[in-house]
Amino acid sequence: MGSLTVASMLVFLVCAATTNADTSEIFQRTCEYSTMHVQCPAGKTIRLRSAMYGRKEVNNECPNSGPDTTTCEAADSGNIVAQMCNHENSCDIPASNSVFGDPCVTTVKYLDLVYWCR
Questions:
Q1: For the chain, N or C: smaller number of CB within 10 Å?
Q2: Contact 62, 104 (CB under 8 A)
Q3: What is the pTM of this model?
Q4: Which residue ranges form the domains of the chain, and what is each CATH number?
Q5: Which residues are within 8 A (CB) of 50 and not within 5 positions of it... i.e. 6 or more apart?
């Protein structure tokens, strides 16, 4: 049983070292009508975790002159950003209704992105 425990610990340590080496998530937000520039260091590529174009909170980063809608999200945000950026070293994403559709008319939206560079 002792050798099984040691072997299990070695497998765990090897797996932990491989999976935790590049797990720092990067968060970016850009307001509607702007373009988000995503860049990884040389030799690394973008791996998308999540993307959201819409509005989920009232904040001062992207002031909203319309109604305070905080429950809107473009349904296909993740797939759109993944097609544009996944496995690329860098990409530019317009935070625009022409790219994502308009999930909440008269509300200023933003693009939130969470990704890794691996």
A1: N
A2: no
A3: 0.77
A4: 25-117 (2.60.120.740)
A5: 78, 112, 113, 114
Separation between Cα atoms, residue 90 and residue 97, nearest integer Å:
22
Paired with 111 in beta bridges are 30, 53
Nearest to 53 by CA among 7, 5, 102, 14: 102
Give 1's DSSP letter.
-
5: phi > 0 → left, psi -120 to 50 → alpha, else beta; which? alpha
Q: What is the pLDDT along the chain (118 residues), one digit of tens a residue?
A: 444 433 333 333 332 323 334 569 999 999 999 999 999 999 999 999 999 999 988 777 788 776 667 789 999 999 999 999 999 999 999 999 999 999 988 888 999 999 999 9
Residues 74, 29: Cα–Cα separation, whole Å: 15
